[in-house]
Amino acid sequence: MAKQYIVKTTIHGIPKAGGKKVVIKSSPEPQDVPAALVKELLERGVIEEVGASEKGKAAAESTPASGVDGTGDDNSGD
């Protein structure tokens, strides 16, 4: 079974191993992507791993804003 990915744009391709034409339509829902295409499509940014956008969003929300040291002291000149 192929691993599931979020497909950002419709893909038309022919994997070298199988030789059959593959069409994968873009969708916000996770879909199977043939293993032979995964590496290239990830590099091109056409697909992303399920949960990758949530991980990035959570990391961005937990990172303090630049210039903020996280101590709660807003009087840095004291």
Primary descriptors:
78 residues, alpha+beta, two-stranded antiparallel sheet, 24% strand
What this model shows, in words?
- With 78 residues, the protein is α+β, with helices and mostly antiparallel strands.
- The chain has a domain at 4-48.
- The protein has helices at residues 35-44, 52-62; strands spanning 4-7, 11-13, 22-24, 27-32, 47-49.
- The strands form 2 sheets. It has a 3-stranded antiparallel beta sheet.
- The radius of gyration is 20 Å and the shape is elongated.
Instruction: Please report which band the strand proportion falls in: under 5%, 5-15%, 15-25%, 25-35%, 35-45% or over 45%.
Output: 15-25%
Average predicted confidence as pLDDT? 77
| Biggest sheet: strand arrangement | 4-1-5
Would you count the extended β strands for me? 5
Largest sheet: 3 strands, antiparallel
- The H-and-E topology, N to C, reads as EEEEHEH
Helix count, DSSP H or I runs of 4 or more residues = 2
Shape: elongated
What is the subunit organization of this protein? Answer: single chain
How far the N terminus sits from the C terminus, by CA atoms, comes to: 61 Å
Stretches where pLDDT is under 50 for at least 5 consecutive residues are none
User: Which class of secondary structure composition applies to the elements?
Assistant: alpha+beta
Q: Give the proportion of residues in helices.
A: 25-40%
Radius of gyration: 20 Å
How would you summarize what this structure contains?
Residues 50-78 are annotated as: Disordered. By secondary structure, the chain is α+β, with helices and mostly antiparallel strands.
